[in-house]
Amino acid sequence: MVSALRTSLKRTPLLRSAASVRLLSTAPKQPTLKERLAELIPVAREQVKAARVQHGKKSFGPVLVNQLYGGMRGLPALIWEGSVLDPDEGIRFRGKTIPEIQQQLPKAPGGSEPLPEGLFWLLVTGEVPTYEQVAELSKDWAARAAIPDFVEEILDRCPPTLHPMSQFSLAVTALNHNSAFAQAYAEGISKKEYWGPTFDDSMDLIAKLPNIAGRIYRNVYGRGKLPPIDVQKDYSHNLSALLGFGDNAGFVELMRLYITIHSDHEGGNVSAHTGKLVGSALSDPFLSYAAALNGLAGPLHGLANQEVLVWLTKMQAKIGEDASDEAVKKYRQVVPGYGHAVLRKTDPRYVAQREFALKHLPDDKLFKLVGQIYNIVPGILLEAGKAKNPWPNVDAHSGALLTYYGLTEMQYYTVLFGVSRAFGVAAQLIWDRALGAPLERPKSYSTDAINKIFKDKN
Ligand SMILES: CC(C)(COP(=O)(O)OP(=O)(O)OC[C@H]1O[C@@H](n2cnc3c(N)ncnc32)[C@H](O)[C@@H]1OP(=O)(O)O)[C@@H](O)C(=O)NCCC(=O)NCCS
């Protein structure tokens, strides 16, 4: 379908490079994201129909009983066009690698990292937007950013001892109070139109996350009042400002990279799949994303970025700042930030963050420890012989970067992952409603049934 979208896109005069659009100041107004989506959806619907007619009855290979018991590893079970994860190469967003994304997506004036607004546009449409389109999206999100008073009150009443992810999930759930989709559904909207209010809710969801994340940070860590959203600034700048880092250009650049690379990781990971699963019951985007956040809060998933920093700082306290490789080797435990359910090589999201660190903080001690661990841990995991992937994932690096810029509260780290992952989950929910994705309902079996089914089979 991606190639078909690209073909349709080549045929349309709307596809121009950012540079050529800027030259044509008299050019007609470029379409908004919603207008462009409305053009693409009928094409995609036809593509899905054709794929189902052509391939619908074909088998996708055997299912092993071990996959039923083994967390469905590798089981082909879902469709999501936005991103695909190759075990060796890592993630591609609509066919583009992270370095390609960094090169091709629009940047803020003076910035060198991609704007996550552009990544969202790419996830939703399969197209690289112009700078002007991305700037419009920044303005739109800034205009939608306010959260209802009662959601502020919910957050203000949370004890600071309640984990920031639990507070985040509570607030996102409560946003469902004003869901356009829930209201339209109650009023009997037709199935073909579901995607419109889902789009509006998804835009509201993403837009409101910085105010929620900022309020949690300031409440829990006593950092004073939130500044207002600046409609002239991009999403990452506003998020940084709400956290108290708006004047720190390096942190703002880090947020642009961070949100972009954490946004999506194909459809089967816990947060993305949870969002899709709950959305398949026609729960609105707020309820669906709150469920996804609860999955992201698990230590085997998003909480790993918190765990890595806890692990690193404990290790640093125990073996010192400039410890030898021998001392690091002796400090053995389960290594958070290493291993992956799909990847079998170093995560390109780790590499992108390492390159950012080499550029902005090459002499930082914690960054050096992260690099030292990279030279040692894969060997240890290979030697232990259990982990299928001994290489680092995205979480092995992110905490060290945040710490460098002064965001040292590790318990908060997964909230930033949660802001980012909304981009992917929201894009997927919009397309699931556009393509009429059905209620998810796989079949479960008992061990007794398995034994009966395979009784006389080899
Ligand atoms: C990501 C993760 C959950 C994938 O799980 P998985 O698909 O079951 O991984 P594997 O098939 O390679 O696991 C096989 C064995 O290796 C172990 N293993 C995997 N990664 C390990 C690590 N980083 N350190 C120590 N042991 C590890 C597993 O615990 C498992 O042991 P068991 O058979 O005794 O239960 C796992 O690698 C992990 O726990 N990593 C640390 C947490 C993390 O970084 N999560 C973020 C992922 S983006």
Task: Give a topology summary.
Elements: H1 2-11, H2 18-23, H3 33-55, H4 65-69, E1 83-86, E2 90-93, H5 98-104, H6 116-125, H7 131-143, H8 149-157, H9 164-174, H10 180-186, H11 195-221, H12 235-243, H13 249-262, H14 270-280, H15 285-296, H16 304-319, H17 325-330, H18 348-360, H19 365-384, H20 395-404, H21 413-434, H22 447-453
Antiparallel strand pairs: 1-2
Helix pairs in contact: 6-21, 7-11, 8-9, 9-11, 9-15, 10-11, 11-12, 11-21, 12-13, 13-18, 13-21, 14-15, 14-21, 15-21, 16-20, 18-20
This protein binds coenzyme A.
Walk me through the structure.
This protein is mainly alpha-helical and 458 residues long. Among the domains are: 124-300 and 422-434, Citrate Synthase, domain 1; 304-404, Cytochrome p450-Terp, domain 2 (Orthogonal Bundle). It is built from 22 helices and two strands. The protein has helices at residues 2-11, 18-23, 33-55, 65-69, 98-104, 116-125, 131-143, 149-157, 164-174, 180-186, 195-221, 235-243, 249-262, 270-280, 285-296, 304-319, 325-330, 348-360, 365-384, 395-404, 413-434, 447-453, and strands at residues 83-86, 90-93. It has a two-stranded antiparallel sheet. α10 (180-186) crosses α11 (195-221) and α15 packs across α21 (413-434). The longest helix is centred in the middle third of the chain and has 27 residues, at 195-221. The protein is globular, with a radius of gyration of 22 Å. Residues 1-24 have low confidence and may be disordered. Coenzyme A (COA) is lined by residues 300-301, 304, 334-341, 381, 386-389, 393-395.
